[in-house]
Amino acid sequence: MSSAEGTPASAILSAHRISKSFGDIPVLFSVDFDVKPGEVHAIIGENGAGKSTLIKILSGIEEPTSGSISLDGQTVVLPPNGAAEALGIVLIHQEQNLAEHLTVADSIFLGRELKIFGFLDVREMRKRARAVMETLHVYVDPDARISTLSVADKQMVEIAKAISRDARVLIMDEPTAVLSVGETETLFEQIRRLTDRGVAVIFISHKLDEIMQLAARVTVLRDGQLIATVGTEALTPDSIAQMMVGRELSNLFPPKIEPDVDAPVVLGVRNLVAKGVKDISFDLRRGEILGFAGLIGSGRTAVAEAVVGLHHLNGGEITLDGKPVNFTRVAQSVDAGLAYMTKDRKGKGLLLNMGLRPNLTLLTLQKHLKAGFLDTASETRALERAVRRFDIRARDASVAVGRLSGGNQQKLMLGKTMESEPDIIIMDEPTRGIDVGTKQQIYHIIAALAAEGKSIIVISSEMQEVIGLAHRVVVMREGRLAGMLEGAEITESEIMRYAAGIKQSEHNERINA
Amino acid sequence: MPDAMAKPARAFRIDFKTAGPLVALALLVLLGITLNENFLSYNNLTNVLARSSFIGIIAIGATFVITSGGLDLSVGSMAAVIAGVMIMVMNWLIPSMGIGWGVVLAGMLAGVLLGGVAGTFNGLMITRGRIEAFIVTLGTMGIFRSLVTFLANGGTLSLNFEVADVYRPVYYDGLLGVPYPIIVFALVAIGGEIVMRRTAFGRHCAAIGSNEQVARYSSINVDNVRLLTYILQGTLVAVAVLLYVPRLGSASSTTGVLWELEAIAGVIIGGTTLKGGYGRVWGTVVGVVILGLIGNILNLQSLISPYLNGAFQGVIIILAVLLQRGSRNS
Amino acid sequence: MPDAMAKPARAFRIDFKTAGPLVALALLVLLGITLNENFLSYNNLTNVLARSSFIGIIAIGATFVITSGGLDLSVGSMAAVIAGVMIMVMNWLIPSMGIGWGVVLAGMLAGVLLGGVAGTFNGLMITRGRIEAFIVTLGTMGIFRSLVTFLANGGTLSLNFEVADVYRPVYYDGLLGVPYPIIVFALVAIGGEIVMRRTAFGRHCAAIGSNEQVARYSSINVDNVRLLTYILQGTLVAVAVLLYVPRLGSASSTTGVLWELEAIAGVIIGGTTLKGGYGRVWGTVVGVVILGLIGNILNLQSLISPYLNGAFQGVIIILAVLLQRGSRNS
Amino acid sequence: AQDKVTIGVSVPAADHGWTGGVNYFAQQAIERLGTTYPDVEFVFASAPDAPKQIADIEDMVSTRNIDALVILPGDPDAMTSAIKQVKDAGKFVTVVDRQLSIAGVENLYVAGDNPGLGANSAAYFKEALPEGGNVVILRGLPIPIDQQRFDGFMGGIEGTQIKVLDDEFANWNRDDGFKVMQDFLTRFPDIKGVWAQDDDIALGAIEAIKQAGREDEMFIVGGAGMQQILKAVEAGDKLTPIDVSYSPAMIATAIELTTSHFTGGIQVGGRYILDSTVITQDNVGEYLDANSPF
Ligand SMILES: Nc1ncnc2c1ncn2[C@@H]1O[C@H](COP(=O)(O)OP(=O)(O)OP(=O)(O)O)[C@@H](O)[C@H]1O
Ligand SMILES: Nc1ncnc2c1ncn2[C@@H]1O[C@H](COP(=O)(O)OP(=O)(O)OP(=O)(O)O)[C@@H](O)[C@H]1O
Ligand SMILES: [Mg+2]
Ligand SMILES: [Mg+2]
């Protein structure tokens, strides 16, 4: 069934009949895999298929239960805890792995600091950190603390950290999940530069077009089984999707049902000023899906967080169903029927040390009280519903959420937000790390919600998502509204033009007037 | 194959973590039995439990504070100042109210109020003032301790003898042969366990201790929940003092010294995480009883030089926790 | 544009956080000057600094332990046991080596070795035994304390007076008018600051304290770094004791009681995060000096009842940290 | 001799009943003498441990310009050299209660008699238990004073039929006195006498004995002359037949003597040993003081 046709002689790193179980749960079954110098080899598969587990094994982070790894044709036992970096195997984890207290430069050189006479060469590290970041077109201060960066900037730091190492094999687990088109493009440039130098790259992504664009070969995993390893030229996104999900995937996006022309404005934002937001105005109508596009750091998250009361407003006005509101706590906005789903699932979304149930109901515990006490049975029912609705795959409900696959964490977070049954939902990167099959489901859920009369804001760096889902699109740039697109205007090039500041819009003034 | 191999290990680990403190407790009881035949006597056991009740009740409060990522170093001094004020209030009310339960109840009320106020003060400094809990409660620890020394003029505040006679039964008597302190301890423990497991407040404490940001984004009013844990702690300190005062009828600058350390130790031995995010009240109860038994066992034997009591205590504490870690490495 | 807006706010916050302890220190000095004209005298200042040096040196070790997410409660007891053993070693060597520097140096060596061993023991229990640092060091706190009581047979271990005369200058003399304890304190502080800021070890401590997993994945040997922090702590306790013994010439079961609290307080007042991830040695020095000055200032006046010293201390500690938080909420 | 005299008074912090008494009596004396002699200024400090106490006296010398120091050293061995420095700086030094580790440092020594406290208590045990019997001992903290008292007691009962079942530390603290006594009562069915070494401990132990209902089986001897115990002695309580004085008021005596060195024009010096007297129902009147917090 497997067709690993790579010639082992030329492979740098290869895996033979790798199996892995966590406790009594098998996750990988006898998987073969290899990567050659100068090649990009992509791994795709549904959430929980075992992609992250496989590459953790390939980088020594996890030990295989059985099977072997060879490096340069030599069978090796990889050292644990990232020590395989010394062998040239560098991994970018799916979940961001940065120490929040450290600075950007500290993080990039962590574990292999530059020294002169035994002391840290701080200046040189800062210089090189800035240089690597510049090759990625990211201009953050090397002395900025990680805790002050946006999620996307953190991801770029991770990438900078990885490409600045002397990698022979560079493994990237969904590096583009929170990146927008521009950043992704820069990343790809760097990857091509590395492969030209003979670096082998293993690349995981749920964005099939990226795979088509970048990879020479693709390995498909399903439920821990190796389905196939094939050359990209023989594939189309549809055929990959079919291999992954095991069924035909037509119509990723449901048809758009336009909201009534006279649908009332449920959320109105006028001249909002807050941390990261300079001045923005927009309306959201009942039954509408409003897309938010923009480059990373353009302030989309900041707008959402200000609206729901996570940040203090420095100016402007927000109306809900025409009535002015000023939320100072999230609880108030949730009570008013407005829910926000963060994109930072690890830092702000989920309690990684707790099980599925407490995570799902954390936002809505009030609903599960019986005579003032928590009704576990009711929570369990809620979990069962959410598992069915969002196809959450977990070994059992008691497993710590931190051990779920990335996509399943994301689905759980979706479930958590939807538990509050909001009328207005702001979703920040709703399909971050979610496989195409489930993505389709989620898009249908979103469309169905809109059809029911709910209103949805989708903040997304995935252009296709915004284009495929939204009735109207707000493009942000540097904390301001750069453009407002509607109907046929919603195209990739148009969005890019506004996002990059090539085109300015009068919409802002128009709305303000 | 992997399944068959993995299963027992997992079951083993979970059992161990949960049962760890219980195993340590059982071993201590066995040791006690071998050392002295009176160890299991009704009198000895009620003695140990009754005198563990102060620390126990305080430690249950500390379980909430620690679970939500906080710390309260001031509980010992707070206990002293509450005891002192209670005694002063009762002595002062005698002329107007006469000897009797009225005075005692008034004193109790004053104690509980003061505990709530002291806890509120700690909580507000921490949540509104945004100062580290360690610093705030280190500060109030000094402040409360000074206060009681000042009130007692460096000596001892003694409860009027006749009122003390009225109040005494609260420590020494009981229901159906179970001393009141044990009953109160048990009630607080059961209540605490229910609040921790079965209320939104308990869930919120764990959430905040686990990740404050996530809690905030999940519409939890982080500051209020935090504040509440400190108020609860203060109130429970007061409850402990209500049982403490009738025992000896006095308070001085030495009352409650190092209780904070003992309470925190009980909490941690019981399996609650010092950095927050996970807490269990029943574990705390076991932890506190373990600490109480260590002292009791030391007094029941003559083998260990009393100079080495502290060493024995230290070794047992480490061992008790080691048992919980038993299979971590495997 | 965004930078222009963001910058002033950020710069402001950082300034406050950095300068906080310094501002508190300056205010205390002002208070001292107004209270007593001798406050700024050379004698008074060297007195205060010299006696802050024990806690200071220990606190510098604690800065590393806390930065990497650990805690060491045993330092006070460890100091007592090191002092006791040093004294015993020196007394015991007199018959064979005679009175002189030889004996003193041998005693010092023994002290430093013991400090290293004690630190290693703590570190191994924590890293290899996987027991919470709080529990391990609470345990060893009791063990060390008992040990010194046992060695002293419940009394005091006193250094032979003639040897003490040889050793005394180590505390009371100095170079160019600066007492040795201050010199050693300064050297340890400068060394500590460099290690923290300018070596991989310091960086790794912060990384581990901030996120152990990340550190591990960055191929940092987390256990070894942790272990090293405890060894460093033990060694620095020994260094502090080398200066302590010539001052007091004796050790007993009360030596070093509550030093751990004072050291931790100094560290936190200095701006290091109790939960780890960020530490600064110079801050610790300021924090310890603040604590030293509080005691000194209390002695400069007769207004505050000595019973309220602790309250004054508590208030100042809270205020010192409040200053750092100044603009957090804005 | 001088126009203005400053006397420093340094005592251990009020960390148990007896030191609490010391603090109280010191401040009483300072207040009284301060009004009597306007030319004498007092500087008072109390310290929880030896380094702090040394710091206090250093500060007194360098910032308060004291002429004399009255000190009750918490840990005399640790403080000897620091006190010697004060003496070397030309100050008049009065040491209270605890002997320094080298002789001749102090100008004046005012002391209680720790071994005597143990020996006097032992004498009473011999008298009360002529046929011998089982006793238990509740000690203070493991520090030298405790050892001196303990040795004094053990020496006193040597050669008698009195059998010490066990001794444990009760840390000069009521709560620990209560706990330790509870456990002794659990452990030993036959106890004739309890020596508690300190009245704070005794008060805790008494509650435990009463709780066990065994107050008729035994008697308890404390020490230091705490008012609450003295009242019981006065009332003829069988449980507390006597007490042994070890009055914290000795600090007041020392302050008075030191002050009179400067104001009375008389040279004061030498050793004043205040006996540890046995306080019985007959002489208890001399020791009762309604105002004392101790
Ligand atoms: N440390 C762990 N303990 C227990 N189970 C684990 C652990 N890590 C992963 N798993 C389980 O292994 C399975 C595969 O997870 P993995 O993270 O490899 O999936 P993935 O293919 O990367 O999915 P995604 O696309 O969602 O990231 C999942 O069911 C997950 O719950
Ligand atoms: N906690 C913070 N502290 C300081 N600056 C912040 C913080 N959060 C966001 N910012 C800044 O505010 C601006 C807007 O960030 P935000 O994350 O809202 O952008 P975004 O467009 O939502 O990003 P993305 O495209 O990644 O979703 C950025 O310049 C960012 O660096
Ligand atoms: Mg994954
Ligand atoms: Mg014994």
If you had to describe this structure to a student in words, what would you say it looks like?
The complex is a heterotetramer, with one copy of chain A (513 residues), two copies of chain B (330 residues) and one copy of chain D (294 residues). Chain A is of the alpha/beta class and 513 residues long. Chain A has 17 helices and 24 strands. Chain A folds into three domains: 233 residues, P-loop containing nucleotide triphosphate hydrolases (Rossmann fold); 179 residues, P-loop containing nucleotide triphosphate hydrolases (Rossmann fold, 3-Layer(aba) Sandwich), CATH 3.40.50; 75 residues, no CATH class. In chain A, α12 packs across α13. The radius of gyration of chain A is 23 Å and the shape is globular. In chain A, 54% of the residues are buried. Chain B has 330 residues and is mainly alpha-helical. Chain B has a domain of 227 residues. Chain B has 14 helices and four strands. Chain B has a two-stranded antiparallel sheet. In chain B, a hairpin with a 2-residue loop joins β2 and β3. Chain B is globular and about 55 Å long. Chain B starts with a helix and ends in a 5-residue tail after the last helix. In chain D, the strands form three sheets. Chain D has a six-stranded parallel sheet, with helices on both faces. A four-stranded parallel sheet of chain D has the order 7-6-8-9, with helices on both faces. In chain D, strands 10-12 form a two-stranded antiparallel ribbon. Chain D has 294 residues and is α/β, with parallel strands linked by helices. The longest helix of chain D has 20 residues. At the B-C interface, α5, α12 and α14 of B face α5, α12 and α14 of C. The complex binds adenosine-5'-triphosphate (2 copies) and magnesium ion (2 copies).
